[in-house]
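Record 1 of the preview.
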Amino acid sequence: MIFKQFRYEPLGQASYILGCMRSKRGFVVDPTEDLGVDHYVLEAADLGLTIAGVLETHVHADFISCARELAAETSSPHYMHESLEGIARFDFTPVKGGQVLELGRVRVEVIHTPGHTPEHCCYLVIDAARSDEPWAVLTGDSLFVGDVGRPDLLLEDQTLNVLDESQRAEALFASITEKLFTLPDHVEVWPGHYGGSTCGGINMSGKASSTIYFEKSFNLALKQPDVAAFATFVKSSARPFPDDYVRIKSTNLGLVDKEERSKTSVPGILVSEVEPMVSDGAVVIDLRAPLIFARGHVSGAVNLQFNRADLADRAEMVIPEDERLILYAESDQVAEASSEILTGAGYAVLGIIEGGLASWDRAGGEVASLPVVSVDDLKSSEGEFSVIDAREGYEYRYGHIEGARLLSSMGAWDEVEHVPEDESYAVVCGDLVRSSLVASLLLRAGRTAHLVTGGMTDWFDRGLPVVKEEKKKETSAK
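->
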């Protein structure tokens, strides 16, 4: 069997090619437009495969699919679950649960697994050249490594939703426990997402594969005692919605036309050009790591650490979409890659500061710093600092420093203006990424801020006191 996974890091998305070494026929599963038709055609050619079909696990809500175009380019069927007939506005080849698609000695069995979406399918892979036992299952957005798909990505048109959120959660629980978890323990699990993808929750692993045994044993969502507890757990641990998911899903259903997207080169900006742009409202984004940012940065810059897997998602959670951005990083290559990612997310990127902070400094641009304190410094400061906690609400409730003010990174863009000006702030989070972001926003708003190294991780490790907030129990009138 030929089997290859392709990862698109900005979205934590995985697509696949699998095929038979003898017949030289292969399937592509869940192709993304971000990689493009040519990518899959060339990869198949490199592997000596003819693309005999394009399979989708479901209608995606976090990336634009190129399945239709790939199927047309290769004159092959586009397979999707039969329940989409009359809903999807394009022709496809319907499949149903239990159906087997043949690729010579490799067989692919369709498992209908509604929940994340009503039409969702998993694909069980059998390599008969080695055994009639199943080898792997492509689980799409149903079962992830360490987590499960979210059941709440509904469309505004109720006629297209088929199942509501609670029904989807029930269906998802049944699909996994009664179908996937009845597969042999050795079967490998290859999901459609990993890491920071917004199609799952906070427990999704960055590891891109697992096994049925491991997920049965250690997946937190599926360790819940019943379907009601499962639904509550999934909802409470979900990440923010994928940005613009209604448009993306509507596009993938064929309800709206695809937008023409082309890569554009972003110009380099001279230091002398930055100040007028900033005066006109542009925002400088520093893409470097927090401690490097703290040592010195363009005055007024916002620290948004680069990571291809979730840069777009983190930007969309924090920065209003109408802001115009100027970028710089440790290397111009990283700045250019960030520009492409952020432009793809809908931001107007005016350009990059070529040469980064070094060229800025040489040209006499104003350089600021972010003071750094340790957890021990904070503990012994005896009220010198007001503590700001940049984590999310559920993390804050689990345990926070007494007196700490919750200023989630997701809401900080607007909320920093309401932070009093006459105090000195120490900002914490789980690591440094969110606390540095919030601290940079405080500095930009004219506040005095310090970055706490180690954050709440060190605070917990040292056994220092925390305040925990109990969940309020809901009562119903009888």
